[in-house]
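WARN no homologs supplied; continuing
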Amino acid sequence: MKRNKKNKQTENIKVSRNRLKVYLLFLVLVPLVLYFRVVNFQFTTLDDTHIISANYDIISNINNLPQAFTHDPFMNTKRAQFYRPIQTISFMLDAQLGGKEARIYHLSNLIWHILVVIALFFFLNMIGIKKDISFLLALFFSINPLLANAVAWIPARGDILLCFFSLLSFITILQYFSTGKTVYILLHAIVFLLAVFSKETVVFLPILILSYLYFVEKKKFLVKNIIPFIVIWGISFVLFYYLRQFVIHRNMLSESFGFIPFIKNLPTIPITFGKFIFPYNISTMPFFDNTALILGIVLIIIFAAITIKVISGEWRIVIYGALWFLAFSIPPMFFRPYISSIGYEYLNFRAYLPIIGILIITGYLIEYLSGKVPFKRILIISIPILLVYSLIAFNHSSVYANPVSFFTSAIESSSNNAMAYNSRGVVYFNMRRNEEAIADFDNSIKACTTYSVPYLNKGLLYRSLGDHKRSEYYLSLALNYDTLYQKVDYENTFVKLSSEKLSLKKYEEAIEVIRKGIGKYPDNRSLHNNLGLAYFYRGLTKMNLNKFEESISDFNMTISLDSRSGEAYYFRGTAYSKLNKQAEAKDNLKRALELGYKGKD
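OK structure emitted
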């Protein structure tokens, strides 16, 4: 009898292991098949090209790894607002493996997503949700259309990494208190540090861990068992904020960060919840809309009503799931992008970690239902739901295939998206589809008349066509609004407008524009060079030797900022020649030739 019982236990363990293998196989294959085509997608040109392509010389050299901790994701420090070292390091590793093309970065996003799905499965099972139900929830997470953004859009990498290392942090501490093995303290220290350097949102993770241990599990631990983890958390946060202060030098504007942005961002909560349950009008660059808001509120009420009806006495896990959702949703809500009126008000990938709180509640709801309804029936009901969501996710992910489809999706979602029109116009401009580019720039201006960038781009387009008068006109309009969008780089506008005025021989106007530009950007080499040119040509037309002296002064500044500016050496040499300083003229013209600049006809 004992032998039969032992054989039965052995058989049950074997069946359980085989089922685990099947579950893990599905959790890998389903998202892999669903999203594998993203490997062939291009960059969208929204952030990804600025993070990767523009900085490839840096990220492709593994010796530059320390720069991940001294720069923001865009590899600058002057206007840095975000600190994502682990994201940058992950891109550096991608660059070593796959070079500059988008393929390797998309593949990595997919692999990280699959790792999150597997970690989520084990996490849900470890907090008391049955293995079968944990599998269904992890599978639902893996194919949910709301989260397709995180897989298909490369810059979402930071949130995927945050989610993965946060789940591992939770798993390692649960393993420690389950087994008492010291190795899990060490593992926790590593993965928690990685989570902290992935994104600041992790700040609430220790609170969530402790609240789960003490209020959900109601475990009583000696203080000495918690102290090692408190030390780990404290050291990690101190190290993060110490290094971060050298990158984030300035306080954010009150309209971008604080309580007012938080109030404006409150619709994020019901809309995120609603679109996770009912994936309605999912956009690449979403705005808040009343339909999504109302739908989200209604779904929250229905979800709450079902929860109240089904769970009669055990509220701890329900409250905990809601706390998880809010704890990871709220911190990003204190930040509102400066482009919120013209580009997007929130981004779907930010729901990646918070939405696990809803899965926790759902898991316990299904646990209660499974006592009355066989799991096979739950599985049969789930299959068509999973298929429908997979089809929606597959269809939505296709809009990330290239920049045109990406921005077209945003425009179809909101016809007043000025930034999407402008960005698609730039793509058309680079493809030399000028008529379509002009139409998009016009639509962008129509959507927001004070948005300066489409004026700039329209001016650059006409400049490329040799239409200097139209170029000057639109570049001038761009500078009319140069104080409204503080994050927009207006240096190029000052440079291009002054160049157009030089082409039109409006030297006095060029000097006025350049002086204003230098007042804002004193270290801009091109502005100093253009000022030197303006004085030089002014000297030629008026035969005023003083203007040549002034031009030399600005060419001196240009060369001090860029010692390889052949043009500056050439015109400085020519100016010296006009002043009969032949020795200086000869030296400068010789240097210009050495630098490959032969002058103008």
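The chain is about 70% helix and 0% strand.
OK
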